[in-house]
Structure formats: structure tokens, C-alpha cells
Amino acid sequence: MYATAKLTASGNGILGCWLIAAPFVLGAPAIGRWNDVVVGAVVLLVVGYNRVGTTGRHPASATGAGLVATLGLWLLLAPFVLGFEGLPLWNDVIAGTVVASFGSYDAYVSAVGRERSVRTPVE
After folding, report:
1. CB proximity list for 64: less than 8 A, separation 6 or greater
2. Is residue 25 exposed (0-12), middle (13-18) or buried (19+ Cβ within 10 Å)?
3. What are the b/e assignments for 77-103, b being 16+ CB within 10 Å?
4. Deepest of 11, 84, 105, 106, by most Cβ within 10 A of its Cβ?
């Protein structure tokens, strides 16, 4: 289970890097550039923290993974709220869907891992 969490965290890290570069590659409007760069940087930082936290048998931070999932949902909605169109719109919708999905999975794995590590045998 932790191997998959490492892969999803790595995938979100790659997407965070893409979000930082994509507005310049795709020619997003100014508000879109700032939105993608800030969201990509936060995703990259939180995923980096969680990726380091999954080394060994310790689960990652469920709060951090939940934040990444929330940022993915914002990225999914941002083009419609901020009025993007064309390639920047579809880039954010697709990247937001993947980031939210991976972040949700990481949050689930973290919560289940914490629950299992906290449990004590009942006598």
C-alpha cells in the first residue's frame, strides 16, 4: 500500500512542476499564471514533505494529503471561477482531477496507516 502512495505522491510532484511551467508554455492569462504557479508550488512543497514522510513504514501526513486534494479541487474549479478558456482551461481541469484523485488516495492511505499504527491489542 505504501508503494502506491509513493507513486501517487511522485505523480503529484511531477504535476506540481508542470503546473509551475504550464502557464508560460500554454500562454495562460495573468490571473491563470499566478493561480497555477502558486497552486503548483504549494502542491510540490506538501507532496515533497509527504514523500519524505512515507520512507520506511510510517504513513504520510493525512492533513497534507487532504490539502493537496483540496488544491486539486480548486484547480478543477478555478478555470470556471476565473474565466479561463482554451488550453489553460483544459490543462487545469485535467491536472486538477488527477491531483485531487491522487491527493485523496494519499489521504486515505495516511488515515488508514495511522489508525493501524495507533491500535493496541484488546485483552
Report:
1. 46, 47, 49, 50, 53
2. exposed
3. ebbeebebeeebbebbbebbebbbebb
4. 106
Least Cα distance to 106 among 98, 118, 116, 117 occurs for 98
- pLDDT for 117 equals 54
pTM for this entry: 0.83
Other residues' Cβ atoms within 10 Å of the Cβ of residue 4: 12
Question: Does the pLDDT at position 109 exceed 60?
Answer: yes
C-alpha cell at 98: 488527477
Q: Where are the alpha helices (DSSP H) in the chain?
A: 2-26, 30-53, 62-82, 87-118
Burial class (CB in 10 A: 0-12, 13-18, 19+), 111: middle
